[in-house]
Design goal:
EC 6.2.1.3, alpha+beta, about 35% strand, ligase, long-chain fatty acid-CoA ligase activity, AMP-bd_C, Luciferase, domain 3, three-stranded mixed sheet, AMP-bd_C_sf
């Protein structure tokens, strides 16, 4: 779903990791420039350098822009999972997982993996008790996504941990997955 176009006097661009503008329809980081955008962090040049590309504020949102200038937020950059050198958008995996009738809610996170850097896990609230949920969901996901995007762990939960804004607490869920893996080692 589009968040619309940049408002008057705001220049919005989608940039790659090198700060170059990406072609229409490709995913990159949303960057904005306007007179009402802060020029940086007070007395914090290192943080300012990380948050800006030239005069453009890097929002931390992964987005794409269509030919009409409509902007579509895809995910948060800090939530991007890098597994074996491949980038995986949690929202893409969550959307595919949510298509299955067994899944009521799901949150996908990366967890630490010694070989791949990160691996993919899904915390799921099931609609019904199903002893073979993991195999069923794995088959479903493999029919929809490339193998490297398929979760390696499906963890049923009775409720999702929420943060102070009542959104899924991805840090707590990631920690839960890391704890679960460390218990099996």
């Amino acid at each position: 779903m589009s968040i619309g176009k940049a408002v008057m006097f705001v220049d919005a661009r989608i940039l790659d990791d090198n700060g170059e503008e990406v072609p229409s329809g490709e995913i990159g980081e949303l960057a904005i420039k306007a007179k009402n955008v802060t020029p940086g962090y007070w007395n914090k040049p290192a943080e300012t350098a990380k948050a800006f590309h030239g005069r453009y504020l890097l929002t931390g949102d992964l987005a794409k822009m269509d030919d009409d200038g409509d902007i579509f937020i895809i995910d948060r950059k800090k939530e991007l999972i890098i597994t074996g050198g491949e980038n995986v958008l949690p929202s893409e995996v969550e959307n595919a997982l949510a298509e299955h009738p067994l899944v009521d809610r799901c949150v996908v996170v990366g967890y630490d993996h010694p070989k791949y850097g990160e691996s993919i896990a899904a915390a799921i609230i099931l609609r019904e008790d199903e002893p073979h949920y993991s195999e069923i969901l794995d088959q479903h996901m493999r029919s929809r996504l490339a193998g490297y995007k398929v979760p390696r762990m499906y963890v049923p939960v009775t409720h999702m941990p929420l943060n102070s804004t009542q959104k899924p607490d991805k840090l707590a869920i990631r920690q839960m997955m890391n704890d679960r893996v460390s218990q099996t080692l």
